[in-house]
Amino acid sequence: MPMPTKTHPIVVLTGAGISKESGLDTFRDKDGIWSKVNVEDVATFTGFQRDPDQVHAFYNARRRTLKESGIEPNPAHFALARLEREWPGGVLLVTQNIDDLHERAGSTQVLHMHGELNKIRCLDCDSPFVWERDLEISTLCPDCGRPGVLRPHVVWFGEVPLDMEEIMEALSGCGLFISIGTSGSVYPAAGFVNSVRRIGMAHTIELNLEPSDAATMFAETRYGPASALVPAFVEEILAG
Ligand code: BJW
User: Is 114 annotated in the active site?
Assistant: First the structure.
């Protein structure tokens, strides 16, 4: 498929690789998060039921890192915010990341399909709210007043990702699908490129450090660090 004209909407999918150069760990790289903790323990509801303290400690540490360790958006985040401001056809940013670096860089049309680190929700009341401190089992739900019912607002394995209807609709109508910094190993995000190819006429491009598991499904691929690749690609398509 050819590159879209500026009237076509763009959907961008991002993964942990885009935040790597900001200082946040990816999951599946050699030194990634899953090399340090057991995924079943911290990223499943069963793990949370078994040992909520361990899960709270895991997310509390990541919440503190995001807030206190000088983590800032990098040129890739800023380039996507620029793309949203300057692309007339509209840009929807779908991120698997639970950090807030896209928003801090200035993107406003962002869907966090795997949730947000700075939000929690009550197992009873269900609606998410902003939470930037540590969370403990003893923390009372501000709405219903019960202890032991609050959980991180993240999507664990076996749970349904957020905003799927809106995402699928955007994928079906886009003229360009850009996948950045994701290993293409977690569904449904890993299947978005197939959905785009099946239902639309969009150009598809992967920007990653190395070929992802889904690389062969893309019409075009470019490899290198996101902080260099993304600003260059944004410059290129804005220049027409
Ligand atoms: C750079 C870089 C640099 C590095 N520059 N690049 C069997 C077959 C198919 C599917 C399944 C199956 N068994 C189970 C499933 C489903 C399951 C799944 O996919 N499992 C697979 C592991 C097989 N999926 C689910 O359960 C999902 N739910 C679901 O499917 O519900 C059903 C449903 C769907 C749709 C509609 C209705 C119903 C839920 C998945 C939840 C994932 N949760 C996590 C944790 C979230 C909270 C947290 O952050 O703690 O999400 S797991 C983790 O993986 C996290 C990430 O968002 C996600 C993806 O990881 P990502 O971002 O791709 O990171 P990495 O580390 O894998 O890759 C980084 C990449 O960056 C690498 O390629 C590097 O090279 C690159 N990189 N530095 C550019 N500087």
Answer: yes
What is the distance in A from the centroid of ligand 1 to the CA of 187? Answer: 6
CA 160/CA 220 separation, integer angstroms = 29
Determine the distance separating the centroid of ligand 1 and the alpha carbon of 188, expressed in angstroms.
8
Backbone dihedral region for residue 141 (phi beyond 0: left; psi -120 to 50: alpha; all else: beta): beta
CA 218 to chain centre: 19
Residue 117: is its pLDDT beyond 70?
A: yes
pTM value?
A: 0.97
Mark 88-119 as b/e (b = at least 16 C-beta within 10 Å).
eeebbbbbbbbbbbbbbbebeebbbbbbbbbb
**Cβ proximity of 26 and 17 under 8 Å:** yes
**C-alpha distance from residue 120 to each of 56, 133, 225 (Å):** 11, 10, 32
Q: Which of 25, 27, 206 to mutate to test the pocket of ligand 1 (most atoms within 8 A of CB)?
A: 27
Q: What is the pLDDT of residues 76-92, one digit of tens each?
A: 999 999 999 999 999 99
